[in-house]
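Reopening this ticket.

The earlier resolution said the output was attached, but the attachment link was broken on my side. Pasting everything inline this time so it's all in one place.
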Amino acid sequence: MYQPSEHSVQLVTTDAFVEGVHFDLTYTSLKHLGWKAMAANLSDIAAMGGEPRYAVISLALPSKITIELVEQLYDGIAAACKAYSCLLVGGDTVASLANMFISITLTGEARKEHVVYRNGAKV
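Inline output:
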């Protein structure tokens, strides 16, 4: 169970990355991909004026992805988590018949009066 700090509200974001659509492993290292996937979620929380807290990652991995490559992916994820003070707390890994798929859900929190909403955007 996750309880935000006193006087704060919980923020949640999720982003998915599909091989062949959002990234190409021919040109992208797994470490950089891990950072990029985490950064997309971190920026969503920051855009709302929040602080990141906990990440959950789901992966679908084809047989071409070795343990060493998965370790590189998590090196990038861990580096982003460390840089922005959030914790990786769980997830799921399944097999894929074709391409790699990454989905990250990140919670964050912000003081209610400091949350930035889209409807407050200006030109």
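Reporter confirms the inline version is readable. The beta strands are 8-18, 51-61, 87-95, 101-111. Residues 34 and 77 are 5 Å apart (CA to CA).
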